[in-house]
């Protein structure tokens, strides 16, 4: 159970929604996005965690927007948490960030490229164990579902508690493309952990945004609902989605995120699918 918020994730529990912005741009946008998503998820009775990154360290180019940074970003996230009344999820990239971020965010997220960094995973596990939170680990694009066993064992050894969630986000397939093996969701669940689907990053085309000459990541926005629905039908315990009021003006990964106004219809469909396979 996520302490202080009274909801769980996994078999026998409602579909959980981790959603928000790819990266923080300013406090007004964060509050607008969080408020809209809270209204939608409250109406649908879907447990909701607001997600936004304070720093996007894995960028295609030095020219790419990364975010406001740790201190300013955590201040924005803390304001969202207090004013909107939602738990927070955000990424870390360095061991030194773990305890500081866990003091503000209920869910610490490990980016896919860093999922095998033992010191990072262990420090994050220990930090969220102390704070009563969860650790959300993206499966690397270069790993099989079974490879996640070692990641889960690191966390269990460090935290000795059921705090980990694995996230499917696609696997590298040739150049500038990802595919999602829906059978992998059940295979990761067999490791004894809940599994989410990151439908947003699964439609990325890494380093293939033609508008910037390859200096940023492209994406196939119209594929997000397809992957999300298929994953929930395959048994995913939660969904990870990114939205923006105007995706074409988003400062990071706009081609992969959805218009904020589409959240209601998509989440309504996802809940219906989840209910249908878990009557």
From TrEMBL:
Keywords: Cytoplasm, Transferase
Main localization (coarse): cytoplasm
EC number: 2.5.1.55
Localisation per UniProt entry: Cytoplasm
Domain spans labelled DAHP synthetase I/KDSA: 7-272
Gene3D superfamilies, A to Z: Aldolase class I
Record's catalysed reaction(s): D-arabinose 5-phosphate + phosphoenolpyruvate + H2O = 3-deoxy-alpha-D-manno-2-octulosonate-8-phosphate + phosphate
Pathway: Bacterial outer membrane biogenesis; lipopolysaccharide biosynthesis; Carbohydrate biosynthesis; 3-deoxy-D-manno-octulosonate biosynthesis; 3-deoxy-D-manno-octulosonate from D-ribulose 5-phosphate: step 2/3
Presence of the UniProt keyword Transferase in the record: yes
Classification via SUPFAM superfamilies: Aldolase
InterPro entries documented for this protein: Aldolase_TIM, DAHP1/KDSA, KDO8P_synthase
Pfam family, one: DAHP_synth_1
Superkingdom assignment: Bacteria
GO molecular function, one term: 3-deoxy-8-phosphooctulonate synthase activity
Stored PANTHER family: PHOSPHO-2-DEHYDRO-3-DEOXYHEPTONATE ALDOLASE
Family named by the database record: Belongs to the KdsA family.
Identification of the protein by name: 3-deoxy-8-phosphooctulonate synthase
